[in-house]
Amino acid sequence: MTSTPEQQPADRLDAAAINERIRALWAGGALSPEGEKEYRHLLIVWAEAMRDGQQLAA
Fold first, then answer.
1. What pTM was computed for the model?
2. Three-class SS string for the chain?
């Protein structure tokens, strides 16, 4: 069974997929406390994915 990006742990996604999840969180307007926690986590994972992508390109 293949999982969708929404079902996969964020640390296994590429930066574009993580960005999609961040945008989906904000689609509903203000974030709940749980949404804020997930948002902060996704930002960290996104930054790591971006950094890893830049290192691969070098």
1. 0.71
2. CCCCCCCCCHHHCCHHHHHHHHHHHHCCCCCCHHHHHHHHHHHHHHHHHHHHHHHHHC
Does 10 have pLDDT greater than 70? no
Alpha carbon distance 23, 53 (integer Å): 20
Q: The tokens of 38 are what?
A: 């997930």
Report the distance separating Cα 27 and Cα 10, nearest Å: 18
Give the Cβ contact number of residue 42 at 10 Å. Answer: 19
Q: What is the mean pLDDT of the chain?
A: 81
Alpha carbon distance 41, 38 (integer Å)? 5
Sign of the alpha-carbon torsion through 42, 38, 8, 18: negative
